[in-house]
Queue: 2 jobs
Job 1
Amino acid sequence: MKSWERLNAAILACQQCPRLVAYRQQVAQQKKRQFRDQTYWGKPVTGFGDRNARIVLVGLAPAAHGGNRTGRIFTGDSSAQTLMQALYAVGLASQPFSEHRDDGLQLFGVYLTAVCRCVPPDNKPLLDELRRCLPYLVCELELLPQAKVLVALGQIAFNGTLRALQALANSHAVDWRLPSPRPKFAHGACHELPDPRGGTLHLLASYHPSRQNTQTGRLTVAMLTEVLAQAKRLAGL
């Protein structure tokens, strides 16, 4: 418990990226007309979910008027609704919506996190910003030893997850290498990889449940549900 508390305290206090600090605060002050009467979180966002998780879902970053407003990852925006509908459909969430921090949502065997803890302008974190955030994801993987299935939501999350696994191996002084050819992002792809902590793990890929993807039909709830159902099977849940 203390390790989780230290990690989350470090995330909440983080000010390593001046551009992101300025932007998250700007969004919190300007707000969206729809939420003008609400007090925005306006800080980095920690992970959320089951700390005995066997599945880790890795997203991109808090949404400007989602996680940056509510203070919980994948909460209060359209991406959250799509993801929760899919998680609920396969029995990994207690309800098909994620609206605010006190809405009673529970995740079963699943932990949600992201490769960037602050909302980035245009949803595009810089490489240096991703590098500064990387240790937080590495630490979460260290604290989730039962997690043997990683689901990356989008290509940036996919690449960040691979970097986190390499960093985790380095921290354990493990000679860990990606298979050749290097795993590539594609919706529905499933890669079996050596686990730096021992054994093997599976890395699954899905398009991110962003409005851009769902409104164009690039990703549907059914498509995401299929990926999560596979993750559940692989995790033995």
Job 2
Amino acid sequence: MQVVDEGQTIEPTTGMAFQVQGVDWQYPNKAYILLHKPAGTECSHKPSNWPSVYSLLPAPLRQRPAKTGLQGVQAVGRLDQDTTGMLLLSDDGQFIHRMSSPKHHVPKVYELITEDPLNAQTVQKLLQGVVLNDDPKPVKAAACELTGTHQMNLTLTEGKYHQVKRMLAAVGHKVVGLHRAQMGGLQLPPDLAAGQWRWLSAADLMQINAIN
């Protein structure tokens, strides 16, 4: 069951109210969505091996027309099929670019679990920077904190392909669990279950950009 929070719409268009699953639903000029991505889903309109995250959204969001030629809302970046957590979607191209571009350094906090124990030396290496095989320039964690013997919170301001897993592999660790808990100043709400979504409010958007 999808979560629709009344009063969370952004710039509603008058006269465009209708219902989704029996719930009154406004049609905003621009859609800003927060989805709790479950494991076993792909961030693609044409998934290859797993169900699409877009199948978790109602048809009006998947099919709403856009001037860009792209149909429906688009994910702000991608999470691997086995990665869970915070995924933003929108049909506002400027918002998507701003949140995705490494130039804007939007911090993203990941909670990860490794196969073997972590230690303070691992934290130090990630903060100092590690070299990935596609770029000689070291990639640094913006913040890094041990939360258990095999758990860590890692903050990144870039969005390279499989970056978290590759950074941990570079310091000798295999990631076996990965969850994105925060983007900018906005945390994933604890009451939003995996597979559920809600509108982003104006206050949410301010939180996302608060530390950007």
